[in-house]
User: Fold these one by one.
Assistant:
Number 1:
Amino acid sequence: MEEKKNDLTKRDFLKLGGLGGMALIGLSNPPTAFSDTQKKSKSYNNRIDVHTHFHPPEFFNEIEKRLGKSEQALGWNLLTMKRDTFMQAYSIEEGLDWMSKFGIDKSVFSFPTISMFMDEIAEPKKRNEMSQFMNDFFANTRQKFPNRALFFADVPLGTDPDFSIREMIRAITQLGLQGVAIQTNNAGKLPHERNFDDFFSEAERLDVPVFMHPSKSPWFENAYSGLKKYMFEPVVGFPLDATITVAYMIIDGFFERHKNSKIILTHLGSALPYMYERLNMWIRNPYLPPAASGRANLTKKPVEYLKMFYYDTAIGNPEALQLCESILDENKILFGTDHPFIESSERVTIEYIDKAKITKGQLEKIYFKNATVLFKLKA
């Protein structure tokens, strides 16, 4: 009997890790566009999506040609689950048409998840080559659609910081890209480490945003005998890794060294906006020496450093967004969907944002005004 296109087979269900995987993508024959909130949501036709992954077939063909395809890699496994509203490998033309269905005028595309498809550490030279290939592809695509397609450059920060600086400069100054994407965990190294200071200083000089996406971390393999069960690598591991990364950046004094950095955090900042008082208590502890508590580095409370980051709305909920609006800088919350890693990502993101108890002014800032300022776009 022929399978229905959007139905999960038993084999697919097991690949996803049962109910835990379904929680990530939410498959249940969903509509491809808006449901009950269609009229309200479509009243905005100028949304700017800062967290959307550009997945053209050419990228996967190139990765496979250079490095092969690993059955153990999370990214390749996800691609086998492709549906009309999940893990689509779109051409740019198809992607722009899809955006228009949801009132998204512009997207800032990125591909910071290459570690899900290859071992960066084992193949550093080929990793550098992939960055150059992708950034050239981004630039050619942007030339075709300059009013709608923006891009974060790809760099292999964890395996080659010096090359990453050169490639970022090339991508911004020669190719005309709009920012740069890194991972929360770069080949086992975290962004606060001093060997990355020159990279962030150069990003400051170029005055471009740094999009910091969660990634698979080495500690995933050791935590609770690994995080593969229920597909907890992305569901739980990614936000945990991002939370650890941001906490280190705050306590280590990252913004004391890089006061003008424009760092975009995904997924409403993972757990940090909801547990910042734990960091406040830590640095106030009178029984800890200054070096241990971070007091030697910091001139502000941790929550004040949290306000220096930018945040996207991907995989959030109304209550979380309301909390972020109340404690963070409302001028730094950006619309982001995490397409195509979340099933019907555009629809579910817009629906939850529209349900949040926030003002019309805050809604407009999220959907397009904040990104317009950050990326220096014409209003």
Number 2:
Amino acid sequence: MSLCIGAMLCGCHHESKMISREPTAVRVATVTVAEASGERLRYSASIVPDAQVDLTFRTSGYVTNVAQVRGGDGRLRDIGSGDYAEQDLTLAHIRREDVQNEVAQARAQLDKAVAQHTRAEQDFRRAEVLYSTQSLTKPEYDESQEAFRATQAVIENARAALRQAELTLQDADLKAPFSGYILNRKIELGSLVAPSTPAFTIADISRVKVTFGVPDYALPKVRLGQEIKIELGNVAAPLKGRVTSISTAADTRDRTFPVEVSVNNRDRHLKPGMIASVNLGEGPHSFMSIPLSAIVASESEPEAFGVMIVEEHKGALVAKSRKIQVSAIYDNSAAVDGVQPGERVVSGGAQLLKDGDPVQVIP
């Protein structure tokens, strides 16, 4: 019982102390909605394909066929610049007889190796029997075994040569690795092609990249995943894309940092080589404005920021701590998130307050 009374007395004493505490004199400011003009940086950009490759034959030979498409006049013609090619379409192939001869020669070598291996195996089995009855010396037995093993290696080499020849035969057909547009054709029917000589250039433009360079002072305005508006002269409404690449090194020619923005191009309105413009930065916008002097360290998170909101509680004014996000600084004010227009924040003396402290507003 005495403990309960003591606790009650302590509680009464604490409550009396709280009630008798003198309010802290503070100055307040009202949260307002401010307007910022914003800053826009405009850059010229180029449209490039999402993927572009040069297609080459792996072996030399004469071009005996080029894929045919129907032209605007209704007649068939060789596929060329501007034509669309589906994935795995055979764009051209070289004379097959030359490569087929290589396959036949490789297959004949394999058959020969198999025959030699069969004979070597028979000789080795005979040597094993003779050696077990001591009718064959150890060197003769070892020689027979080595010959047998050597023919096994010859077979493996012949099989590898045959697989390579068959692969070369498959590569006699030059196929589109993905669906896209032919940008260039550098071969004609009857042309003699060599390995690594470009035959076609194909590009996938179902998605395109908008590439531009920004100087070092503008790099803070660009981040991966950022949505950016792209303007083109032939498109009425701006397009939207996301930043997918920011170079870590400046271009040595103009000292700018290359940036890539990926844009969906399913309707294929954007073509490689087009010129576009991009805008970085924010346009005019509104924000919640408070004086810089009102910002204090957050009580719950020392590394975060907060403010003291003046509220009425049981007929008295008290300061309530609230965490905020600071988005920008403008002279003596700050753009913040976490407050509402019309709320009053402590602008003078906030550093002396704790959550729940009574306050007295002074001019």
Number 3:
Amino acid sequence: MRNLLQAAAALLLFCAAAFSGQPERGNLLLDSYGKVLLITPEGSSRPLADNANQALLSPDGSRLAFTTDLDPKAANSPQKLVVMPIAGGPQTEIVELPPDAHFGHIVWRPDGAALAYDAVVHGKSDDLFIAQVPPAKNGPQNFGHWYQGISFSPDGKEIVHAVNNGPGESGGLEVLDVASGKRTLLYQTKTIVWDARYSPDGKQIAYVMTLREPENTDDEPDCTPPTLGLWIYSVEERSSQPVEIRSAPKGWDDMKNFAWSPDGKNIALTVGTTDCDYPGSAAGVFLTNLGQTQQTRLSTGDMSFEPAFSPDGSAVAFVDFSNSQAKLMRYQVSSGKLSVICEATPQSNYYSLHDWK
């Protein structure tokens, strides 16, 4: 799947406690050109790490895992995976990759005692590993060839990911049993699958699938990516259905990113136009229940993306770049109130929302 846009400048934030009432728990994780920032729901911020390629809060929100280059100034620097407490303290190096490899995805195991990641050697291999936190003496465990995404089941016993047979062929959802290493094709799809994630209750798997490929009318290079859609697979019923946002404007048929609610009953997702660059020319954030009987547009502008639920599910945060300055927004689900958490400065005017834990 196309890489999500990373933040674009060293970030200075105007943050204010614009929310009245009981504040949400947890912290939001922002990235600005590799600078990782921790933001409270009330708007205060502080930096956690520099030169991060990826960053993710632990399930309980107490630690940060991030990947970084050993030498940020080198063109092909080796990469390492690091964990640090957000309250302050020493960093723990979990693993360092060989010089010819880089990290694909990183994901915390639900109990917070391990991290899964895939290590990619371009043109040669892409293997899944699980590393204990703190590191085990015998190092990470290699589970073999991997593809497209890492998502643990709520009990941590299984991992689901997308598999594909090749261009123009069918794909599917494959589940790995962590204890035995056995792999099972759970569901076969009609086209290419890009991402798959268990719901927090383990009853559903949301996955991204190609709806259509770009039409190339001549021999000129075309940067347009495939148009993507979101589908929900029911583990119990072994069936799948598409997510269709009926209130989306005409031409907004490309699903860009999504987030499960903590109870697994709702999904917040970004829908917009299909464009060469992320986030494209237009996009908005929507909320839908699994039955798709209740759908709400959370954003008001035409350039909003990257939703994240609060730990209790009472609010959804997202980035809005509809005006001249980027904003981090909060939508209160019960009241429908939309407010600003933080606003960027003209000098450093882009950021990416990674997490809320």
